[in-house]
Amino acid sequence: MSDNAETQEVSESQIAVHWREEEYFPPPPAFVQQANASDPAIFERFSEDKFPDCFTEYAELLTWDKPWDTVLDTSNAPFWRWFVGGKLNASYNCVDRHAAANPDKTAIIWVPELEDDETLYISYGELLRQVNEFAALLSDYAGLKRGDRVTLHMPMVPELAVTMLACARLGVVHSQVFGGFSGNACGTRIADSGSRVLITMDGYYRAGSMQDHKVKADEAVAEAARQGQHVDQVLIWRRREGEYQSQTPIVDGRDFFVDEVIGKYAGQEVTPVSLNATDSLFLMYTSGTTGRPKGAQHSIGGYLAYVTGTAKYYQDIHPDDVYWCLADIGWITGHSYIVYGPLSLGTTTVIYEGVPNYPDGGRPWRIAEKLGVNIFHTSPTSIRMLRKVGPEEPFKYHYHFKHMTTVGEPIEPEVWRWYYNFVGKSEAAIVDTWWQTETGGFLGSTLPGLQPMKPGSCGPGVLGVYPVIYDEDGNEVPKGSGRAGNICIRNPWPGIMQTVWGQPERFIDVYYRKYNRDPNSKDWHDWPYFCGDGAVQAEDGYFRILGRVDDVINVAGHRLGTKELESAALTVPEVAEAAAVPVIDDIRGRMVEMYVSLKPGYEASPEMEGKVVTAIETEIGKIARPKNVWIVPDMPKTRSGKIMRRVIASVSNFADVGDVTTLANPEVVEGIRQHVQRTKVAKGDAPRELSETELAEIQAFGDV
Ligand code: WT7
Fold first, then answer.
1. Which residue among 302, 460, 614, 623 is least enclosed by CB atoms within 10 Å?
2. What is the pLDDT of residues 242-284, one digit of tens each?
3. What is the pLDDT at residue 587?
């Protein structure tokens, strides 16, 4: 009992005190010498008294049809409007202006997953031709026009960038759904965004085998129809021209192969539409705490200015660099830092089709060597995985990175050090960039030429972004106090989403309600942005991000809401109740474990577990596949009937379950614990001992 009481009292604040301060790594001199930001005067230019005008420096990196009148309009707080009165086109900025200056310069290098397939080099001139032709097709053949939404469900192919840029050219709002998501997940997003056109591909390679992707389009269209949205056209790019990689029939009058239609538009040019800075460029769906996905709606002017500026200073992109970000374009990282940021700066961006460890752990380093990649960008999950499959591999290849990024999850200091010493060969500056789908671009990072790195910390707020940590009552938690709290951003910045598509109330509720000082205020100072992450700030001002404070599980850098996982499990007719919890995983950070109870008259069986797994893969996708499904006779619950996720999360992670005496049914806990933990031990699946922060996360999971 005293044991329980003790673990119960370990709060995030106490844990932070126990952290060891990591040593600093100064930026490598050769990096500093060539860095875009090497003069500390930049901090002056972005000092708080220069807000919001400081961000005109980013906007000026773009070519505008008409300059803005107002930098930041707060009159409809917190729906901030940036660069109001300005007009521009994102496609023009990412393609035309570079094609005019330097048509033969390589814009995109595409690396197919199969090593024997040919690497594709697409120049800016060629990209312009493709974007023009596809824009002509979209407008004429698909009848799309400014303001329409269109859903894309495409893999990592250059045609995805072409499609996005063609939409941007017309002012059509694209909503790319991660290719690994299921047809149903795609259908839900089609319905939410009100798209009548779906753009997809027949198939793509993943881990060495051709995936049938078109089958998901049929499921998506059916699901969208169930939710009241009719799709009248499906445009299908083909992975290999003239071949069809899918088993599914082509639906007459609905499905069209792009390569069969595009000939009609050969050589056509489409004038980029001059759009308002405050019009929308795209939607990017992300998980929240309720089942309905949130479409983060991003602007053209503010977003493009922000990703261009941050790509220049934080990714240190110069036009003659070869930049490779291993993320998927289907996530915000790929939108901002594979497509829009790098192309806006006129650099060469690499798009790789497949998984990093195919066919072996040396693949990324072979690609880097062959292409002369000098800027590399990936996630802690990939780093952990590449370290596991080939710790010495990087030294076998003669590439040199000047700069590397880690993004998406907290990185353990020892993993960071492997990245630095082995992948970076101790030559590269590293940035640990902390941000979110909603924020468009980076929030926290060191400025690579000017601020030292510290493993495990993202660094201070980026230029012009002022983070603060609040406790539950809205009091500021001072830096160096060793106490953790909710990290918020005090001010707006140009990359912030405009709203949640179709759910403006939810936008306010989720991101602003908690710390808003006056709902009628038009003053941005009254509207701190609530990030949903726990964090602690060291004496030097650097932030260490602890992870989500809501019911979101971060699997390999991808956010999965417990509600969407549970709703998926509940589509199995025999399931009565379901609860999703995280388990600590040494490669993917966290994985999902499902607990379900069955309706009366049904028995636990491997088949039943399989049904739950299939349901989750069907509703969400393979990334959400649970590590285990535990069928339990009854869920531990409070007297008011709430499932105690922290209790089962503790069981799954072999952590102390704490005091369960106040539950409505404390007696079920021990049975569940024995069953789950014995099974795991027998499978060799017992986790290592958890760190204090991990323990705190698990033992508080779902306590909101
Ligand atoms: C959540 C946002 C950022 C684009 C990709 C993920 C976590 C993100 C870091 C980092 C620690 C991080 C946070 C955040 N996160 N970057 N460098 N260190 N945690 O975007 O899917 O919207 O997820 O990812 O918890 O809130 P996302």
1. 614
2. 999 999 999 999 999 999 999 999 999 999 999 999 999 999 9
3. 93
List strand residue ranges (DSSP E) for 53-188, in order.
Answer: 70-73, 81-84, 87-88, 106-111, 120-123, 149-153, 173-176
Q: How far apart are CA 400 and CA 221, in angstroms?
A: 46
Return mean pLDDT, the chain.
95
Q: What phi and psi values does residue 417 have, to the nearest 5 degrees?
A: -65, -35
- How does pLDDT run across 90-139, given as a tens digit for each residue? 999 999 999 999 999 999 999 999 999 999 999 999 999 999 999 999 99
Is residue 467 reached through a cis peptide bond, with omega within 30 degrees of 0 on the bond before it?
no
Closest C-alpha residue for ligand 1 atom 12: 409
- Take atom 1 of ligand 1 and give the residue whose Cα is closest: 436
Q: Give SS3 for 565.
A: helix
- What's the mean pLDDT in 173-177? 98
Query: Which segments of 434-513 are extended strands (E)?
Result: 467-470, 484-489, 499-500
Question: For residue 603, how many other CB atoms are within 10 A of its CB?
Answer: 9
Contact 118, 361 (CB under 8 A): no
> Any residues with CB less than 8 A from the CB of 388 and at least 6 apart, and which?
361, 587
Half-sphere exposure of 554 (CA within 13 A, CB side): 23
